[in-house]
């Protein structure tokens, strides 16, 4: 059954059959096929007691959703695939999707827009192809890029943005981008400049969905404490006092690999290369044997090296569905949107908890006032750096600090460019006074967690 | 084309980390029957097929055949390891002609079924002890009802399990191990790398000898106890306390460490249940093992469950940690072996060979002894009968007229509407206004029949007419994910299923679990 025509024939047959999957009931006129949008129209064309105060029943809302409303989906993975499908089937036919990854075989247990033959191809491209070819009328435009590769002109075109990301850093960047698009007239926020951000996240059997109206409701950074920093094992444990199989694996990954360069100079450990993992596995076993530690397995090795988070189709389906429902509500005003955070956990029965996350007055992202930081003039710059990376409310990754000293813009420390890092490294052990900084002066900090530079005000303590 | 074992492991890697290879096997060997390939049905199917569950499709009517066929083809594309089958036969016909058709299934999932079909199917499945999951998407409301007589869970994987450290009643080998330490004579390196469990044990011994054998009980005593430990931190030559993270860990853990070891009440209840005490040759191995554990608790265990055998990671040098861990591990093995003997006795007493229950299973059971769960749901017949309706649950929830219970009552009311009018309310625009009154009559009729003294706001009646029995995709997808995972729990016997009614409100993004 392996002739080249088979898949195409099958695909055409599937599209034919899909078109016949009509929802019962019918009020059909002017849809692509009879009754296609009946379920949606009931919420757009009928008044009701629970609609948003702004809602007005209209036959035009459907056309708006189909023709005009532009949605951006960030991520085409576990959540992204589900989001694209849910949005397309709900009547959103102008969608863009951004994802910088390619497809891996371990994605196939849940990222259902992909097949075995797609492994290695960009997720955004394959996802868009799938939806475009199976859902008549829907147009998904893919972007095989990092979110940071796109600029405000790009983001500004969307009515609503939905995120299905797996990284807090990326979320914060997106959050910062939408905050930077806000327009204030005489200190008053122009509502037309607000692009609602719907954010979903999952991990195993847990997930959450939230609605963010930038400038109005709690943003990602307002609730940064809800995303506790990832705990890494202490170096001394890994180097000299392993107790768990994970410690042995980290030893092989962090200490042995750089020392022994098993696959050549400058070859970085690739978690997706089975040969690399096999090497780490063997060395971990040896380490474990030395200390009588049991439990090192290939699966555990992979899990530790790649920081794997277990994942299953059902949780992604649930959270994406909740997010897509919010997109529909906001686009149509058919109902009042979630206000503003829902958590889900189905380990024991099904548990949801819905609450209103509050804005933080001094939020590092959305509060618009420079944040004060208090240091003694004899503190070293290193202490400032530590504060920026370790503070629970900032959690920066590799902040670059600049300041105006004696009228000139001076880079105090920058990590991401090797030559500048070398040049500015001595500043870390100098005191703030030695660096020529004055009380109440502004420091500008740039970091991957935010698209815009953050301003801090340095307040000297005695 | 059948996938090789290695490629299946790769594909399923992310979920194997949740339910293990043994859990995966149950999915691949299951026989799941899904009735009705609506939006909700196909979503459930997708979320079962993707992880590798074997599915059997039943369609409800002629439009359904096309759906079922399309769905089956689509789904086989989704996962080539799964062979979907479909049958074009309505469940009502099968119930008429061949109800035993349903006996072969691991679980039956009924989607968007009319009330009459549900009740008939429910009755057949209840007698055959086949779990039944009822799912319905109605407008912005999702509904699930689990019907299972008795579902046992050994591996419930609780989120926040308390450790089993036995500090309040150290077993002999643990006592000996504690004796082998002399904190006062240790050098700094050893002192700072002694596991906090040992530190607490040592200071507890001292406390007990000074307090008539009474452990610290209230806040003040625990504070004093923490202070004792704090004073044990080594000081340098200037009298300044050293940095001893293990002692800080000990102080932090005093509260939970002093928790008395006892059999959780949920497990006590299981010990007292009929199934545990009336063992026959027909009894499932879960109950045989439970009975054996009960015997252990009453005898060798001195009132405690078999030792779990795991300890959390803690600051310590490798050798001290591993040695301590081994003390617990070995005791756990010993206790499991003792439980095994009890299992053997029980099996022998009704003529079954001891190999009927494997050592591996007994070990797993003992390790999870604190977390065992049994879920029992009432039958649909009991829920629907005027004599046994759960009036208390309904009226107490409805003290808040906006509680999710109102949606349950509305779903019952629209079922009534369907029975009377052979259609659902408000399907066509012109019907909406008139149907509100008709639906209100059904609501009142329902409340009267069950003597439910509750008030249902007109807004909800209006809203349910507005819904027009729509099955919006995002609500179907939410329910699809939820239902699939509950089915997986039933099939794998891992994690705990809900009991027994789940309502999801997409308007407010809230949910509730009700006992009906």
Automatic annotation (TrEMBL), chain A:
Known catalytic reactions: ATP + [NEDD8 protein] + [E1 NEDD8-activating enzyme]-L-cysteine = AMP + diphosphate + [E1 NEDD8-activating enzyme]-S-[NEDD8 protein]-yl-L-cysteine
Signal peptide: none
PROSITE patterns: UBIQUITIN_ACTIVAT_2
Protein origin, superkingdom: Eukaryota
Pfam families: E2_bind (PF08825), ThiF (PF00899)
GO cellular component: cytoplasm; nucleus
Enzyme class label: ligase
Keywords recorded for this protein, A-Z: ATP-binding, Ligase, Nucleotide-binding, Ubl conjugation pathway
Record family assignment: Belongs to the ubiquitin-activating E1 family. UBA3 subfamily.
PANTHER family: NEDD8-ACTIVATING ENZYME E1 CATALYTIC SUBUNIT, UBIQUITIN-ACTIVATING ENZYME E1
Name of the molecule in the record: NEDD8-activating enzyme E1 catalytic subunit
Organism of origin: Sparus aurata (Gilthead sea bream)
TrEMBL record, chain B:
Pathways per UniProt: Protein modification; protein neddylation
SUPFAM superfamilies named among the record's database cross-references: Activating enzymes of the ubiquitin-like proteins (SSF69572)
Alphabetical list of InterPro entries matching this protein: APP-BP1, ThiF/MoeB/HesA, Ubiquitin-activating_enz
Keywords assigned: Ubl conjugation pathway
Gene Ontology biological process terms in this record: protein neddylation
GO CC aspect terms: cytoplasm
Xref: CDD domains: APPBP1_RUB
Keyword Thylakoid: no
Domain of life: Eukaryota
Keyword Ribonucleoprotein attached: no
Gene Ontology MF terms: NEDD8 activating enzyme activity
Similarity-based family: Belongs to the ubiquitin-activating E1 family. ULA1 subfamily.
General function of this protein: Regulatory subunit of the dimeric UBA3-NAE1 E1 enzyme. E1 activates NEDD8 by first adenylating its C-terminal glycine residue with ATP, thereafter linking this residue to the side chain of the catalytic cysteine, yielding a NEDD8-UBA3 thioester and free AMP. E1 finally transfers NEDD8 to the catalytic cysteine of UBE2M.
Protein name: NEDD8-activating enzyme E1 regulatory subunit
Organism: Sparus aurata (Gilthead sea bream)
């Amino acid at each position: 059954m392996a002739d080249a025509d088979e898949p195409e024939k099958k695909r055409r047959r599937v599209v034919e059959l899909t078109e016949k999957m009509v929802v019962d009931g019918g009020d059909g006129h002017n849809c692509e096929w009879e009754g296609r949008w009946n379920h949606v129209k009931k919420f757009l064309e009928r008044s009701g007691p629970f609609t948003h105060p702004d809602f007005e029943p209209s036959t035009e809302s459907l056309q708006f959703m189909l023709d005009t409303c532009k949605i951006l989906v960030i991520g085409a993975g576990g959540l992204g695939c589900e989001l694209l499908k849910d949005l397309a089937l709900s009547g959103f036919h102008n969608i863009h999707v951004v994802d910088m990854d390619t497809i891996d075989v371990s994605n196939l247990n849940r990222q259902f827009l992909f097949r075995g033959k797609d492994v290695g191809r960009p997720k955004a491209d394959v996802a868009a192809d799938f939806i475009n070819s199976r859902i008549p009328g829907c147009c998904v435009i893919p972007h095989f890029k990092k979110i940071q590769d796109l600029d405000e002109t790009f983001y500004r075109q969307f009515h609503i943005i939905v995120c299905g990301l797996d990284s807090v850093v990326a979320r914060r960047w997106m959050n910062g981008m939408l905050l930077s698009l806000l327009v204030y007239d005489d200190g008053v926020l122009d509502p037309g400049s607000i692009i609602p951000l719907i954010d979903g996240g999952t991990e195993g059997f847990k997930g959450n969905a939230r609605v963010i109206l930038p400038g109005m409701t709690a943003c990602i950074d307002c609730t940064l404490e809800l995303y506790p920093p990832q705990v890494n094992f202490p170096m001394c444990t890994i180097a000299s006092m392993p107790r768990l199989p994970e410690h042995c694996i980290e030893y092989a990954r962090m200490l042995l690999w750089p020392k022994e360069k098993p696959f050549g100079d400058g070859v970085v450990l690739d978690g997706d290369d089975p040969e690399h993992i096999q090497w780490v596995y063997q060395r971990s076993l040896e380490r474990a044997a030395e200390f009588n530690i049991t439990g090192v397995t290939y699966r555990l090795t992979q899990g530790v090296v790649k920081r794997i988070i277990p994942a299953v189709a059902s949780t992604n389906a649930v959270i994406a569905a909740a997010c897509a429902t919010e997109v529909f509500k906001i686009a149509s005003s058919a109902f009042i949107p979630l206000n503003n955070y829902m958590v889900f956990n189905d380990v024991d029965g099904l548990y949801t908890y819905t609450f209103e996350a509050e804005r933080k007055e001094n939020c590092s992202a959305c509060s618009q006032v420079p944040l004060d930081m208090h240091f003694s003039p004899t503190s070293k710059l290193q202490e400032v750096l530590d504060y920026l990376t370790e503070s629970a409310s900032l959690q920066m990754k590799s902040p670059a600090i600049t300041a105006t000293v004696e009228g000139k813009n001076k880079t105090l420390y920058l990590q991401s460019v090797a030559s500048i890092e070398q040049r500015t490294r001595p500043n870390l052990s100098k005191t703030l006074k030695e660096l020529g900084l004055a009380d109440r002066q502004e420091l500008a900090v740039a970091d991957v967690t935010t698209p815009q530079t953050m301003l801090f005000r340095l307040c000297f303590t005695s | 084309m059948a996938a090789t074992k290695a490629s299946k492991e790769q594909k399923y890697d992310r979920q194997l980390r949740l339910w293990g290879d043994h859990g995966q096997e149950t999915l691949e060997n299951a026989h799941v029957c899904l009735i009705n390939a609506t939006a909700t049905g196909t979503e459930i199917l997708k979320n079962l097929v993707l992880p590798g569950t074997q599915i059997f499709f039943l369609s409800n009517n002629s439009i359904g055949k096309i759906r079922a066929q399309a769905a089956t083809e689509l789904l086989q594309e989704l996962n080539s390891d799964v062979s979907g089958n479909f049958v074009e036969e309505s469940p009502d016909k099968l119930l008429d002609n061949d109800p035993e058709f349903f006996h072969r299934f691991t679980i039956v999932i009924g989607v968007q079924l009319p009330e009459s079909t549900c009740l008939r199917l429910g009755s057949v499945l209840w007698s055959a002890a086949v779990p039944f999951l009822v799912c319905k998407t109605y407008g912005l409301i999702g509904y699930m009802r689990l019907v299972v007589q008795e579902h046992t869970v050994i591996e419930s994987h609780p989120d926040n399990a308390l450790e089993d450290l036995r500090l309040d009643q150290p077993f002999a080998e643990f006592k000996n191990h504690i004796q082998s330490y002399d904190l006062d004579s240790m050098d700094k390196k050893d002192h700072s790398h002694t596991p906090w469990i040992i530190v607490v044990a040592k200071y507890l011994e001292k406390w007990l000898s000074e307090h008539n054998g009474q452990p610290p009980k209230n806040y003040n005593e625990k504070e004093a106890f923490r202070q004792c430990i704090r004073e044990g931190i080594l000081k340098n030559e200037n009298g300044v306390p050293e940095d001893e993270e293990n002692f800080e860990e000990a102080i932090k853990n005093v509260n939970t460490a002093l928790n008395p070891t006892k059999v959780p009440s949920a497990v006590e209840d299981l010990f007292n249940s009929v199934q545990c005490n009336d063992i026959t040759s027909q009894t499932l191995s879960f109950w045989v093992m439970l009975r054996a554990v009960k015997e252990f608790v009453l005898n060798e265990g001195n009132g405690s469950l078999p030792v779990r055998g795991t300890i959390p990671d803690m600051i310590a040098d490798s050798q001290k940690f591993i040695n301590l861990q081994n003390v617990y591990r070995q005791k756990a093995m010993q206790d499991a072996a003792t439980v095994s003997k009890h299992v053997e006795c029980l099996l022998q007493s009704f003529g079954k060979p001891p190999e009927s229950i494997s050592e591996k299973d007994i070990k797993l059971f003992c390790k999870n002894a604190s977390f065992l769960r049994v879920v029992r749901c009432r039958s649909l017949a009991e829920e629907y009968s005027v004599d046994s309706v759960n009036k208390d649950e309904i009226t107490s929830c409805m003290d808040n007229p906006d509680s999710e219970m109102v949606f349950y009552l509305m779903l019952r009311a629209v079922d009534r509407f369907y029975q009377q009018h052979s259609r659902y309310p408000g399907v066509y625009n012109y019907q909406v206004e008139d149907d509100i009154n008709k639906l209100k009559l059904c609501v009142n009729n329902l409340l009267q029949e069950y003597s439910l003294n509750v008030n249902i706001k007109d807004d909800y009646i209006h809203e349910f007419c507005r819904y027009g029995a729509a099955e919006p995709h995002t609500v179907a997808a939410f329910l699809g994910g939820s239902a699939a995972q509950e089915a997986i729990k039933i099939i794998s016997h891992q994690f705990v299923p809900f009991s027994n009614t789940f309502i999801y409100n997409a308007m407010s993004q809230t949910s509730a679990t009700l006992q009906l």
